[in-house]
């Protein structure tokens, strides 16, 4: 076999850099952000790193070069991460009376500052949710307003972390609320709230999370501007806060006598330490029954999945949906149907 020409040597060198970056990204779910904060930013780029390494693999295969083995072995090592990035469509499912349907949505204060043109965004959000007919609705970046009234639900629990703007989180349901509470993240306006619901003969804790925001614009170009060092610093700070917030959520679960479902806005990727800790003992509804990239956040061409529904392992996920065409916020709603019977 002929040696590589100069151009291919450069290509292979760049390939090696991206393969190393991907390998480092694989390790991040096992490293607390507080240990290596700057490295944790790599978890946000995992989808891009996967696609780039797949491109390098194809390039070398087409050229019939053994150098394809570098990206091939790295991708094979992280095959489970590929499954977290993309899922082929699951079979259709019709909800049964004993099933539970949960919908989670970061509603961005119902378009309070007119980020989206039009005066009907609030009504569109309400109409969408009511048309989906969920049993439980978890809303993040909720705002208490006179024009927000989900009449289809008998029970509501809301916690306003900013009394002045009436900003916070809410859970709507028709199941009886046995217990409720706010986990609280100190001085942050982000929060996690929970309700214990009587569902059939069981009681289930539903936790609605909104972890610390990354405070970034939904544009890749922001990472290319001169302020990217400050931007990365802000992301690092947010990751540290998220780590502390997750510890509080897990402490709440440790004292919970019931099975649990966690849903909401993680403000972090499914390749992160934050996600791994939250998903312990739970099934990722997207990984069980999702399709395509499961994109939940509008971030240019990168399929960011920073919202999740995590169902107790004792349950069986029947269906998962994301709604990328529902553009009433910078997030897209997600829903899940699960049954209380054991997944076995």
TrEMBL record:
<keyword id="KW-0460">Magnesium</keyword>
<dbReference type="GO" id="GO:0004519">
    <property type="term" value="F:endonuclease activity"/>
</dbReference>
<keyword id="KW-0255">Endonuclease</keyword>
<keyword id="KW-0812">Transmembrane</keyword>
<keyword id="KW-0227">DNA damage</keyword>
<keyword id="KW-0479">Metal-binding</keyword>
<keyword id="KW-0540">Nuclease</keyword>
<feature type="transmembrane region" description="Helical">
    <location>
        <begin position="38"/>
        <end position="61"/>
    </location>
</feature>
<feature type="transmembrane region" description="Helical">
    <location>
        <begin position="68"/>
        <end position="86"/>
    </location>
</feature>
<dbReference type="InterPro" id="IPR051547">
    <property type="entry name" value="TDP2-like"/>
</dbReference>
<keyword id="KW-0234">DNA repair</keyword>
<keyword id="KW-0472">Membrane</keyword>
<dbReference type="InterPro" id="IPR036691">
    <property type="entry name" value="Endo/exonu/phosph_ase_sf"/>
</dbReference>
<feature type="transmembrane region" description="Helical">
    <location>
        <begin position="12"/>
        <end position="32"/>
    </location>
</feature>
<dbReference type="InterPro" id="IPR005135">
    <property type="entry name" value="Endo/exonuclease/phosphatase"/>
</dbReference>
<dbReference type="Pfam" id="PF03372">
    <property type="entry name" value="Exo_endo_phos"/>
</dbReference>
<keyword id="KW-1133">Transmembrane helix</keyword>
<protein>
    <submittedName>
        <fullName>Endonuclease</fullName>
    </submittedName>
</protein>
<feature type="domain" description="Endonuclease/exonuclease/phosphatase">
    <location>
        <begin position="103"/>
        <end position="331"/>
    </location>
</feature>
<keyword id="KW-0378">Hydrolase</keyword>
